[in-house]
Structure of Flavin-containing monooxygenase 5:
Amino acid sequence: MSAPPRVCVIGAGSSGIATAKVLLERGIPFDCFELSDRIGGNWVWGNRNGISAAYRSLHINTSRERMAFSDFPMPAHLPDFARHDQVAAYFDAYADHFGLREHITFRTGVQHVAPLPGGGFDVALSTGETRRYQAVCVANGHHWDPRWPEPAFPGADSTGIEQIHSHRYTDESQLVGKRVVVVGMGNSAVDIAVDASYHAAATYLSARRGAHIIPKYVFGRPYDQIAGSERIPGWIRWPLARLLLRSVTGRMTRYGLPAPDHKFAQAHPTMSSRVLDRLAHGAIHPKPNIARLDRSEVVFTDGSRAAADLVVYCTGYRISFPFFDAGFLDPGEDNEIRLYQRVFHPRVPGLYFIGLVQPLGAIMPIAERQSELVADHLQGGYALPDRLAMLAEIAKHRQAVAKRYVTSRRHTIQVDFDDYMRELSRERLRGAKRNAPGARAAVRAVSRTSA
C-alpha cells in the first residue's frame, strides 16, 4: 500500500484509546469519535454520555499488573484492585502520555456507518457531517445495552415493586432503607448485593443457577497472578486452579448458594472477597430464581416469599450496534458476532472490532494486541487467509466455546485471557508468512473461487 488508509475509531474507552495509540505510533491517520466529554467509558462514574454504567463502589476484578497496557504500567502506589476513579485517571494519564487527546473528537457520536460497494465507509456523525474512511475500528464496548429477563417474570408488569436494571444502579442511596432483591450471580450482582447489605433494610440474592465465587486474594496474592501466564496453557492452568479454589472457599452450598452445575472456568468467573463474608453473617439472604412478582412481594421457585421495595436485575447486556443498518450485523437471539480471530469481519474488508470479547481477565492488554494486528493489516504487513479459511476458524471457535462454557448468551464472546493473547501473537506471525508474494497470490485465487 503506497499510503496508509484513513481510519475511523468509534469510542474512546479503554479499547478505543488502545487503538488510537497504536495507530498514532504507526503513522496511520485516524479520527476517533467519543460521545462523552472525556475518555474512559464505563470507568467514568457519572459519565455524561448517558450510556456508561459505573457505580460508586466499583473496583477492578483483575489486578492492576494484569490489566495495564504493556508499555504504560499502572502506578505502583495504587491498590492491587483499584477503584473506578483511579482506573479512569490511569486512562487519562495514558492518553496524555502518548498525545492521544488531540486526535479525539469529544461530544460527537457516530450515528451511521455505511459500507460502500467499492470498499470504504461513509460515516455519519451526530454533528450532521458525513466523512469517508477506508477503514473503521469499532471500539464502543458491549456493556451499554441492558438485557432484561426474557421472558419477563409473571407479574412484572403489574407489581408495585420498583424494578431497575443494574445498568441504572449508580450509588448506595438507591438502596437505603429498602428491601432489595438482587437477581443474578455475576460480578455486578454480588457487588450490588454487598452494597445493599450495608444500606438496605433487607437484602436477597436470587440465583437461577450456581456460580463459583473467587476471592480476590489467594494466599496473600491477587488470584490472577498465581499461574497467570501465556506460557501456561489453559488445559494445565484450570485443573490446578480448581483444586486451589476448592481449598480456599470450599463448596458454595456452605454459604446457602446453589451448587454450580459446571466446573470452575466453564462460565465467566464471579470475583468477590466480600459476598461470602456477608452471606456467612446473614446480611445477605440467598434465594432461588424468581417465580413471580406479586403486588408487594417476590415469590421464589421454592415457594418462599420476600416483601420487597426494589428488584435489581443483573441480567447482562445485548451486543448491539445502532450505527449499522438493521440486519447488517445483527447478533439476533444468540447474541453472537462471527469474526475471524474475534477481530476481522470475514465479508467486509476494512471493518475491525476491538475489545468485542468477554475475557477471563482484563480487556486492556487484549485490545492493545488486537490493535497491533489491525495496524499490521492496514500497513500491509499482515495478510488474512482466504474467506473459506476465515469461516472455518470462526466455526471452530464457536464449537470450542460451546464445548468449554455453559450455554448462555453471555458466553458467545468469551475468551480465556492468556490463551487468546498467545493466539493473537501466533496469528501475527501466521499473517506475516501469508504476506509472502506466493502466499498472497494463493489466497487471492482461493478467495475469488469462494466469493
In short: Confidence is low (pLDDT under 50) at residues 445-451. The chain has two domains: 7-145+318-447, 148-315. The domain at 148-315 is CATH 3.50.50.60 (FAD/NAD(P)-binding domain). The CA atoms of residues 252 and 259 lie 6 Å apart.
